[in-house]
Amino acid sequence: MTFDRPACEALADRLLRELFPICRSLSGEGVRQSLRVLQNHAPLTILEYATGTPCFDWTIPREWNAREAWIKDASGHKVVDFAQSNLHLVSYSTPVSGTFTFAELEPHLHTLPRLPRAIPYRTSYYREDWGFCLSQEQLDGLDRQGRYEVFIDSELEHGALTLAEARLAGASGREYLFSTYCCHPSLANDNLSGLVLTTLLCRELAGRDLRHSYRLVIVPETIGAIAYLAHHQEEMRRIAGGFVVTCVGGPGPLGYQPTFLGDHHIDRAAGQAFAELGVEPVLYPFAPNGSDERQYSSPGFRIPMATICKDKYFAYDYYHTSLDDLSFVSAGQIMETLEVYLKAVEILEQDEVLISTNPHGEPQLGRRGLYPQLGGKLLPRPAQAPPEVLGGPKVQPPPEVLGGPKVQPPPELGGPKVQPPPELDTVDALLWILFLADGQHSLLDMARRAGAPFGQLRRLATVLLEEGLLRRADGNA
User: Which domains does the chain have, with CATH numbers?
Assistant: First the structure.
């Protein structure tokens, strides 16, 4: 599969700039506005679930919208202004109008001293409260003896939780899920990059003849994924696996968080994609404290969900701050991550289980023109222990999470470069396919075991199918 990278990159850049200023939250007009923009570029359907709707152990909260919010000093100067940055207002802040001493105001002010110029991102979704976020430098400049006028024009009313989906149909009966979230305001890597990549991925797949089906969803994090699961329970239990698309546009190395199983075929496809693109990703262990994989992979559904990322949440200094802006993320960086996702989809599309029609010893390749007629001249290369076989991908502790060491990004933009697997001698590759064609190994398994490019084995398997030496296992489309 190929894609028009320059056109995709231009559209990614346009979407980043158009969507970044919009104030998105758990619900409200900002989410709707963002999804309407994305609908112009991908076949998305918008869904809404009303306030008060029960979703397993949760209930859809009231809808929140904010129009204006500021703090003025005694001279009438706005020292904090929502109009300058939508991160200044704690998301889901209740309406306020009054005058406060600094001592009264201070409990409602939030800063991040380790990054004194950054505005932190804070929310109060499920507890009625209000607050402002500001840089430590702004806080340090406030008069501790002064009085401050505070105004928040917001509303919490009966409304809806808004999300979007696209369903792209294939014939195999197998369906994969891609999920991202839409509930953060002006944060470029954490949230916006995922929206952009998912839209481009949907656009790319929608124009292709697909073997498998793909479901792409854009939801508010946590409650949105739970609500979607609650409204599509039986369908979602049939999902074969998928990816949570988040933090895909930073300047650091590409990274990978495996499924909770660690060696699911999603993990194998992603690992092969990285290998064939010549990228060695930063590897993060699965933990149930990340993004929406903890909803999709919960005991009632157990959908294996992985993440291909670029500056993963928790792992970069600017996470959940105003410094996660359009100078940190670029369309080109998103393209690097998109390329891995597309390669993984290509492998999933072409992978299948094959069975030898001559399982008693190897078939005679020579009479079919598939083996040299002069014996003794073949010198196969020594077998190498393939990586990540028997046990799944090895992972490193994520930086600054649960005491893990801080990872220093390598100087290369996309992560350390490695050599893609070289093509095997044709006879070697044919023999690997025939040896593993026992109905228990897919082509992807064969490529990993042989240390060969997936595409080479796919081409040669087609030859063996045409020669009648292989047949497709039942259930392959």
Answer: 5-62+160-349 (3.40.630.10), 63-157 (3.50.30.90)
